[in-house]
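User: These chains co-purify. Model them together.
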Amino acid sequence: MKIIESIKEFGGYLNRYTHQSDVCDCEMTFSVYLPPQAESGKVPALYWLSGLTCTDDNVRVKAGAQRYASEQGIALIFPDTSPRGDDVADEDRYDIGTGAGFYVNSTQSPWKNNYQMYDYVTKELPALLERNLPLIAGMKSISGHSMGGHGALICALKNPDSYQSVSAFAPICNPIHGSWGKACLNTYLGDDTKAWQAYDATSLVEAGAKVSDILIDQGTADEFYDEKQLLPENFQAACDKANQSVTIRMQDGYDHSYHFIASFIGEHIAYHAKALKSK
Amino acid sequence: MKIIESIKEFGGYLNRYTHQSDVCDCEMTFSVYLPPQAESGKVPALYWLSGLTCTDDNVRVKAGAQRYASEQGIALIFPDTSPRGDDVADEDRYDIGTGAGFYVNSTQSPWKNNYQMYDYVTKELPALLERNLPLIAGMKSISGHSMGGHGALICALKNPDSYQSVSAFAPICNPIHGSWGKACLNTYLGDDTKAWQAYDATSLVEAGAKVSDILIDQGTADEFYDEKQLLPENFQAACDKANQSVTIRMQDGYDHSYHFIASFIGEHIAYHAKALKSK
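Assistant: Joint model of the two components:
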């Protein structure tokens, strides 16, 4: 991995890197915030998965997360949302292709050549970072927003021993029943809806996946909540039925933007810090 | 004034407005963060003047200021950096014309028709806002970044009774001696350098202007500091000679970006809150 930018912030460093990804077969860009505590020892890490249209840059500029990570001594890992490059399949729409990897391993041509974001964020990237940065091996949690909230939920539910905690902002909780989710899952996985369920948080809970706890914030003025893209009620019902501990906080008057995330990211980072520091 | 957007954040509202400005003779856009305390009473206000190329949007998205304003019960006022519109004079460069009003009253054609940003931010906008929003009349402070740091310093130094406190991030302290400042001042004020001094913070202190105190943060890795656009040393020397209280903190390793501002905006808002709440 090659460092291409380093900006001092809150006493630590916000770095951007590129590397050649094996699983995505292209050059990938990501950012890491290393808190001041990383200068004198290893720190735990919180992975943040971003939403449709984002790169690694949106969250690092807009969420205000670095302040809390600096206080808590936690590294923040900001992967990109898809493979990119001239040789990477794409469509001329915002919700499929680059910027919309949906955190799945594609099985369909031509997408499967590069769109292996599930393996990328759960395996390749953590292994790379634990080899190269002052991170405590295996001591990681995960969160994200919208498509990235979906990503956080499925990564944790499919790998309960790999993440100390999981949270999400306005996640796509049941993508097999929303138009964003259906379009991406059909594109990347084909028309066998059984394959879709392996990447659907609500279906995973229904099938017996379990983590110790889940924290979700959802704004009541979120247009995509109204559009039934997110479906937290379906996730709540599945968790209730499966005795999966979950707290879904309906935040009155908040929308889908980073202003919503900024308002509650401090509480999420405190939630993850508690889990990461209790081990 | 007409509200065109309202986003809930940190329990308050980040609103955007347009209005017809008399002094700039065009439609102007600005944003205001009203903290939760403004729902039950009037609050003091911190004006934030942004830098070259910015609109009202950069600071509200990138600085992380709303969090502290919510805690302190202070409104944040984010004006635009210039007049705008099809009828407004402009040049095809980033450092003169729209996005680069330099917070002066232009005396030169065609700029003088609209570029009256000094009167706009010190008189017209505060009067408009105190008539229309729950703000305590006259209870205001001012801060800003780069060109906006220059703006904050001159607004306070020229109106010491109008602002309870003043601070700045990487301000252009002595624009008559930097290439940005010279280009703007020459464009908007003509070639009489005496006229420039009336909008130059260092010259104003040399000429006897006085405020109770000034807080400045300047990053040591700031490329525009290296380029001698900012010249805080000149301002420090003038303040020392005039017995003007000033604290210029050279922040090791920080650059000119909003990541630098985000790192210290909380301390600046606490500094202003102390002044605004002691009256």
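DSSP finds ten helices and nine strands in chain A.
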